[in-house]
Amino acid sequence: MNLWQQYLRPKTVTEALQALKATPGPACLIAGGTDLMLDLQQGRRPPVHMLVDLTTIPEMTTLELRQGELYIGAAVALSRIAASTMAGQHAQALVEACNLIGGPQVRNVATLGGNVAHALPAADGTIALLALNAQAEIASLQDRRRVPLGGLFVGPGQSSLKIGEELLVGFYLPLYAAHQASAFERIMRAQGIALPILNLAVWLERRSDRIACIRIAVGPGGPIPFRAHATENALNEKSPTTEAVSSALDVLLQEAKFRTSPQRAGAGYRRHLAAALLKDTLEVAWQRAG
Q1: Are residues 170 and 63 in the same domain?
Q2: Measured distance CA(115)–CA(93) in Å, rounded
Q3: Which of 268, 24, 31 is nearest to 168 (CA)?
Q4: In the 8-state DSSP scheme, what is residue 33?
Q5: Are residues 39 and 70 in the same domain?
Q6: 200 and 271 Cβ atoms separated by less than 8 Å
Q7: DSSP structure class, residue 226
Q8: What is the C-alpha separation between 46 and 50, in angstroms, rounded?
Q9: Of 37-46, 204-213, 224-233, 244-253, which range is least confident?
Q10: Is residue 87 located within the same domain as residue 152?
Q11: 190 or 203: which leads in pLDDT
């Protein structure tokens, strides 16, 4: 059985969207294909009429500074982000996350857009982008718009993108400024197997001995990628002392909804790990910001 009938390599976002609209049967977008091809081969997804390859669209494979922001196309491979000096300067948490996804072969083809579009609550790239205050650019045949990254998710494995009508083009991230830094850590089983047991990303701005501003994202902390707003409020304008971090952890354990996963870990174990991840990631970001 053929898993697809046509394979299209458009040169522009508009061509890709027009192909999705015009195809006489089911169509799928493909970039890295590390999940999609397995789903097709193993029968978790029915055969499709057309695969639309996004890796031939220049703006979706671009990583550059663009009008005072860092732009990363949705079809940029994870290994390229991990090796980018530019990304390392402005989005260190994302570089660290990309370095931990799968193994080297997977990272060479898997893309940041694919990691985000799957809308999994513990996707490493997504959690890092959430802490970095990223915005996503979405295109349709009618217009383009930018939305905060958190606005892409509506449920586990469910994004707000309209299938067959909208395309995730890329991401915009604020540039690094003095005394700002980020960090990412995860707890996992053997690297390259499934999703993390728990991951956590921190971005902060340091003012002397206090945290002037902070963003924290945790996965899986709920049914969608989770931003820990109450925990951030508990740390804002505080020095990251042992007492302050301990109090913030209490808040995190109240607002995050850690669940038991038969394949990965129990809720209690995740709550235990959250203490170490929050302490370590906060400490790394604090030192970098100094």
Answers
A1: yes
A2: 15
A3: 31
A4: -
A5: no
A6: no
A7: E
A8: 12
A9: 37-46
A10: yes
A11: 203
Helix (H) or strand (E) holding 56: none
pLDDT score, position 46: 87
| pLDDT single digits (tens) 121-140 | 999 999 999 999 999 999 99
Domain around 252: 180-289
Instruction: Find the CATH number of the domain harbouring 276.
Output: 3.30.390.50
Q: How far is the first Cα of the chain from the last one, in angstroms, to the nearest whole number?
A: 59
Please choose, from the candidates 166, 170, 164, 12, the residue with its C-alpha nearest in 3D space to the C-alpha of residue 76: 170
* Of the candidates 206, 201, 212, the residue with the CA atom closest to the CA atom of residue 173: 201
Whole-number Å distance between alpha carbons of 8 and 23: 11
Which one of 157, 174, 191 terminates a domain? Answer: 174
Same domain, 234 and 129: no
* Range 92-95, long-range pairs (CB < 8 A, 24+ positions): 92/181, 92/182, 92/183, 92/184, 92/288, 93/128, 93/131, 93/132, 93/182, 93/183, 93/184, 93/201, 93/202, 93/203, 93/285, 94/125, 94/128, 94/129, 94/132, 94/173, 94/182, 94/184
CATH number at residue 101: 3.30.465.10
Q: Mark which of 119, 153, 174 sits at the end of a domain.
A: 174
Rounded CA-CA distance 12/86 in Å is 25
Same domain, 225 and 259: yes
Number of folded domains that form the chain = 3
pLDDT tens, position by position, 248-285:
999 999 999 999 987 788 999 999 999 999 999 999 99
pTM above the 0.90 mark? yes
Question: What was the pLDDT predicted at 1?
Answer: 63
Residues 93 and 127 in one domain: yes
Task: Say if residue 129 is in the same domain as residue 164.
Answer: yes
